[in-house]
Amino acid sequence: MLPSLQLIPGAIPAMLASAAEQGYLTLADRYGLLAATLDDSLDDMERRAIDRLLRAVIRGRISIVEDLCLG
Predict the structure, then answer these.
(1) 8-67 pLDDT, tens per residue?
(2) Closest CA to 12 of 52, 56, 68
(3) What does the alpha-carbon distance between residue 38 and residue 9 come to, in Å, rounded to a whole number?
């Protein structure tokens, strides 16, 4: 049996805005996207936001960082 995943309301639009502003996706963002793709209750707006985010990564507008050094 798989563990239950539940997204925080508004997480996908917040992730999209953050990635657009900063220009990268973090490890936490990637786990959030993974959880979102496994969630069958996403509405069309959230699915389109995920698609836009992934297209931006493919086109090189948003990069994927392995680890952030905040020190």
Answers:
(1) 778 888 888 889 899 999 888 888 888 888 877 788 888 898 899 999 999 999 999 886
(2) 52
(3) 15
For 8-60, what is the HEC assignment?
Answer: CCCHHHHHHHHHHHHCEECHHHHHHHHHHHCCCCCCHHHHHHHHHHHHHHHCC
Evaluate whether 49 touches 16 at the Cβ level (below 8 Å).
Answer: yes
22 Rama sector, left if φ>0, alpha if ψ -120 to 50, beta otherwise: alpha
Q: What is the pTM of this model?
A: 0.75
Counting beta carbons within 10 angstroms of the beta carbon of residue 15, is it exposed (0 to 12), middle (13 to 18) or buried (19 or more)?
buried
